[in-house]
Design goal:
The chain is of the alpha+beta class and about 600 residues long. It is built from eight helices and 38 strands. Among the domains are: about 90 residues; about 150 residues, Immunoglobulin-like, CATH 2.60.40; about 120 residues, Immunoglobulin-like (Sandwich). The longest helix is centred in the last third of the chain and has 24 residues.
Length: about 600
């Protein structure tokens, strides 16, 4: 009790000093007449004004301090026996200087108030989730004010409000209601004049300058049908998807009579609670680099897929979950969100049971298009149907390496690691003898080869080491090549062991074969008009510079009568041919002659 009194005294003193500081006045503790020797707070205005003698504090500021002191002393009362008694819950007090600056509200808030009251406390607030995502109701707070009094309260419930759903929050005094309530009750002297809605610390709606309408309720004009210009009459709700707020209370809301909404019925929805776990559902294999197969190829690695496995001993309802791919910050779309080949599946209306120990292979998107995963690297995870909570996450990388060719990214339950496996979409995972072990972060390390093996630089696979001591001996007449380590026939390369050439032969240094030696005195005569080439020793023709002599003498030819007759016959035949042609084409020649004459005649004019 003494500590509380000392705290109150210290607070009053701080207020007085802060008011006097601009005047440069410093007070000593014994100069404050507003506090008695016993430490009891005096609310006498004249006692507090005594301090104003030296500080010249305006009387208006003294009244503000007096009001604050009066409200603080009501928090703790002392009865006649000296015991402390708690007063009724009091709202948080704010002065004009502490009041927040009214900023422009969000035009289209994710959650908007459709109904509320404006009495001394919020009897109820009905809100509507008009966003496309679930809203965490635990992150929602409301702050409402009456004059310089303000009260901020949260919702006493947990869960998520699904899109296009209502939720109702009522006052703790409404014990008969079964809906969720505020965490505390705030009572004001006057009526509520401002309501603010915060989500994750950000203000999403502001209803300001409500005015005085005691015991009246307010309804949003875009959400309800009104009659008689909205005067106290309300009909059913409108069909709407998104409600915008203009920032003007009069433009957005209308006053309705108490009881009208009671007859119409307040709206409330059950909170959505995502599953705590996947109940044994897990991703066990991913094929992201499928082969480009022909239409008739029915190979298991011809299309991308994601294989899941129910590792539990009870059935799993797949309708509660969905598969996501891509970046964590990206929105869920048709290309990144999949619900088991069933685009219309719903977690409340449907069930899709995967029995214990069974596999499910996802090959298509919701729109029926074949699944196409990121080839080189990517992220795949399981989340609840609405994308609120994420569960198992799998990342893969290095699928473009030579070692990953025709391989899947598979989980090996024998050692609990992910590694390259063989495509097995409808059965347990299979792994090759030569495998590459890699972590989910994408850092991959090759599995060490055995002592009697080495790793091929071309294929990155382990190969058996062939040593000379284990090689089979070569056959008789063979030797082992140092370059190829293979057996070769023994053939002496030394010239000394070659069969000697004959006396009239020599050995060609290029082919190592024997060739005949040509002697000059054995060469045959080339004959007349030919000579021997000194370089090749072959015969060739000799060109003579003198003109060749004809084999007969020239003779004089005399012209005879018979020769002239031949010329006359040839001329006659030619003339007959020309005459026949002129006769046959006489009309054409006549027209051509006339056209030619007409042309030159016109040119002459």
């Amino acid at each position: 009790m003494i500590m509380k009194k000392c705290g109150i005294v210290s607070l009053i003193f701080s207020l007085i000093v802060s008011l006097a500081a601009p005047a440069g006045v410093v007070f000593a503790m014994d100069e404050v007449e507003g506090v008695t020797e016993e430490g009891i707070i005096s609310t006498d205005k004249e006692a507090i004004l005594a301090v104003n003698v030296a500080a010249e504090i305006p009387e208006a500021q003294i009244e503000s301090v007096e009001t604050a002191v009066s409200e603080m002393t009501q928090a703790t009362l002392v009865d006649e026996t000296g015991a402390e008694t708690a007063s009724s819950p009091q709202p948080t007090v704010t002065t004009a200087a502490d009041a927040p600056i009214v900023a422009e509200p969000v035009t289209t808030p994710p959650a908007i108030i459709t109904l509320f009251d404006v009495s001394s406390t919020l009897e109820f607030v009905e809100m509507y989730n008009q966003s496309g995502s679930p809203l965490d109701i635990s992150k929602l707070t409301l702050k409402y004010s009456a004059g310089n009094q303000a009260c901020e309260t949260a919702v006493n419930d947990t869960g998520y409000v699904l899109p296009a759903e209502y939720f109702l929050v009522v006052s703790p005094t409404s014990a008969s209601r079964e809906q969720r309530t505020f965490t505390a009750e705030c009572l004001f002297d006057g009526d509520v004049t401002r309501v603010e809605v915060f989500y994750e610390g950000n203000r999403i709606q502001l209803i300001d300058q409500i005015g005085s309408a005691s015991s009246q309720w307010m309804a949003h004009k875009s959400a309800w049908y009104f009659s008689n210009s909205g005067a106290n009459k309300i009909g059913d709700r409108k069909s709407f998807s998104v409600i915008k707020q203009s920032g003007s209370f009069e433009a957005d809301y209308s006053v309705i009579a108490v009881g009208v909404v009671e007859a119409t019925g307040l709206r409330d929805s059950d909170m959505y609670h995502p599953p705590d776990s996947t109940d044994g559902l897990m991703i066990v294999e991913i094929l992201s680099n499928s082969r480009s197969c022909s239409p008739g190829d029915m190979g298991e690695d011809c299309e991308d897929y994601i294989k899941l496995y129910n590792s539990s001993d009870k059935p799993v309802d797949l309708a509660k979950y969905r598969i996501r791919t891509g970046a964590r910050t990206a929105n869920a779309t048709t290309t990144t969100s999949y619900t088991w080949h069933e685009p219309t599946i719903h977690p409340y209306r449907d069930e899709l049971i995967l029995t214990e120990g069974s596999y499910f292979t996802l090959r298509m998107r919701n729109d029926g298009v074949a699944l196409s995963l990121a080839n080189k690297e990517g992220n795949i995870w399981i989340e609840d149907y609405f994308g609120v909570v994420s569960y198992q996450e799998v990342s893969y990388a290095g699928m473009d390496l030579a070692a990953a060719r025709d391989r899947t990214w598979a989980y090996d339950e024998t050692d609990g690691t992910w590694k390259f496996g063989l495509a097995s979409p409808d059965k347990a995972n299979m792994f090759p003898m030569e495998e590459v072990v890699a972590s989910s972060t994408g850092d991959s390390t090759l599995k060490p080869c055995r002592d009697d093996q080495y790793r091929s630089e071309e294929t990155n696979r382990c190969r058996n080491i062939s040593t000379g001591s284990t090689l089979a001996p070569c056959k008789e007449g063979q030797y082992r090549s140092e370059e190829t380590n293979r057996c070769r026939s023994i053939a002496s390369a030394a010239a000394s062991v070659l069969k000697p050439c004959a006396d009239d032969q020599f050995r060609n240094p290029e082919t190592n074969r024997c060739k005949k030696i040509a002697s000059v005195d054995e060469l045959v005569d080339c004959g007349e008009g030919r000579e021997r080439n000194p370089e090749t020793n072959r015969c060739r023709n000799v060109l003579s510079a003198a003109m060749p002599v004809a084999g007969f003498a020239p003779e004089i030819v005399t012209e005879t009568a018979t020769g002239m007759m031949g010329w006359w016959v040839a001329g006659g035949v030619s003339l007959a041919a020309v005459s026949y042609g002129v006769w046959q084409w006489r009309f054409e020649i006549s027209r051509l002659t006339k056209k030619t004459a007409a042309y030159f005649t016109s040119r002459g004019k």
